[in-house]
Amino acid sequence: MNDTICAIATSQGVGAIAIIRVSGDEALEIVNKLFKGKDLTKVDSHTINYGKIIDPTDNKVIDEVLVSVMLAPKTFTRENVVEINTHGGIASTNKVLELLLTNGCRLAEPGEFTKRAFLNGRIDLLEAEGVMDLINAKTDTQRELATNTVTGKVSDLINNLRSDLVQIISNINVNIDYPEYDDVDIITNELLIPKITALKERINKILEESKNGQIIKEGIKTSIVGRPNVGKSSLLNALLEEDKAIVTDIAGTTRDIVEGQISINGIILNMIDTAGIRKTDDKVESIGVSKSLKTIEEADLVLLVLNNNEELTPDIKELLSKIKEKEYIVIINKCDLASKLDLTKLDVDKSRIINMSIKDNLGIDKLKEKIIELFNLNKLESADPTYLSNSRSISILRQCLTSINEIEQGLKDNRPIDMIELDIKNIWEQLGMINGTTYEEELLDEMFSRFCLGK
Question: pLDDT at position 413, please?
Answer without folding.
Answer: 87
